[in-house]
Amino acid sequence: MPSRSRERQLAKLAARRRAEQTQSQRRRRLTAGIVGAVVGLAAIGTGVALIAGGNDNPTVSATPSVTTTPSAAATGLPAKTGTVTAQASPAKQVACGGKRPAAADTPKPQFDHAPAAKDVLAKNTVYTAVMRTSCGTIRIQLNTTTAPQTAASFVFLADKGFFDGLFFHRVVDSIDVIQTGDPLGTGSGGPGYTIPDELTGKEHYSAGTVAMANGGANTGGSQFFIITGPQGTNLDGNPNYTIFGKVVGGLDVAKTINALMPKQKNYDGAPTKAVYIESMTIETAKAPPSPNASPSK
C-alpha cells in the first residue's frame, strides 16, 4: 500500500496532467479560431474583389460586348414583362443634320423569353431589315439559314418597335465597328432574354458583316454591330460573335457613323455626335428557287 507522501505525489502529477490537458485544449481552440478568422477574412476579401472587379464601362474591351442573364427555355411567343428607359444619353448634337426622333422617349419593352424561329420566320422567305438612321438608311439582309434563332429574335424585336429611337452607343476604329441595339444606352441592356450562339466555325468579319454582340457564350440579346471596313477581320481570331446579316445597301452610311470619333488611335467609345435609329422595319420577299432544286413537272 503506497505511503501518504506517495499518494500526495501521485495526486500532484494527476493535477499537472489535467492542467496541461486543459491548456492544450485552450491552445487548440485558439488556433482553430485564428484559422477560422483568416479563412473568413479571405472569403470576404474574395467577395470584395469580385464586387469591386466589375467593369461598368462597356467600351473598355476591344470586342463588342453586352452583359445579360441567360434565359430559361420556353415555348410560344414571348410575353411582355415590362419596359426600360435609357440610362445614358448620346452627344447633344445629332450627326448629319438629323434630329432626335420622338421614339427616343418611348420606353422599350422587355420579354420573358426569346421567340422560336418557327414562330417568327416563314419558309422560303428573304428578310431584309431597313434601318433608317440620322445619317441615312442601311439595309441588312438577314441570314435565316445559319442563324435562324438570331434572325427571328431580330425580326420579332423590330416588329415590336424595340429598335426605334435607340442610338449608336459605340464606335471602334481598331476593328471598324459601330454598335447599337441597347435600350439602356450603356452597353449593358437587352430585351429581357438571351439567345444561344449560332456559330459555324467559319466566321469571317469582313466589311458589311452584321453580328450579335455578347458578354460571353450564349448571352446575345439585342445589341448588334456592323463591320464598316477591313479591320473587322481582326475579330477572325476571336470568332465568338454570331453573324446574322449582311449590309446590302448603305455601307457608306455605316462608315460615316464610324468616322464620328476623335482623331486618336485605338478609339473605343461613344460617337462624338449622336446617331439614332429613327426606325427599323422588316421587308420580306419570296426566296428565289435553289439552283439545285428539281424542275416541277
Notes on the protein architecture:
- By secondary structure, the protein is α+β, with helices and mostly antiparallel strands.
- It has 2 domains: 1-54; 80-286, Cyclophilin (Beta Barrel), CATH 2.40.100.10.
- 25% of the residues lie in helices and 20% in strands.
- The chain has 4 helices and 11 strands, in the order αββαββαβββββαββ.
- It has helices at residues 4-52, 117-120, 148-159, 251-258, and strands at 80-84, 108-111, 125-133, 136-142, 170-172, 177-180, 209-212, 224-227, 243-249, 268-269, 277-286.
- A 9-stranded antiparallel β-sheet has the order 10-5-6-8-7-9-4-3-11. The chain has a two-stranded antiparallel sheet with strand order 1-2.
- A hairpin with a 4-residue loop joins strand 5 (170-172) and strand 6.
- Residues 24-63 and 65-72 have low confidence and may be disordered.
Average pLDDT score: 82
Low-confidence runs (pLDDT<50, min 5 residues)?
Answer: 24-63, 65-72
User: What's the gyration radius in Å?
Assistant: 30 Å
Instruction: Provide a count of the helices.
Output: 4
Helix content: 10-25%
User: SS-based structural class?
Assistant: alpha+beta
Question: What is this structure's SSE topology?
Answer:
Elements: H1 4-52, E1 80-84, E2 108-111, H2 117-120, E3 125-133, E4 136-142, H3 148-159, E5 170-172, E6 177-180, E7 209-212, E8 224-227, E9 243-249, H4 251-258, E10 268-269, E11 277-286
Antiparallel strand pairs: 1-2, 3-4, 3-11, 4-9, 5-6, 5-10, 6-8, 7-8, 7-9
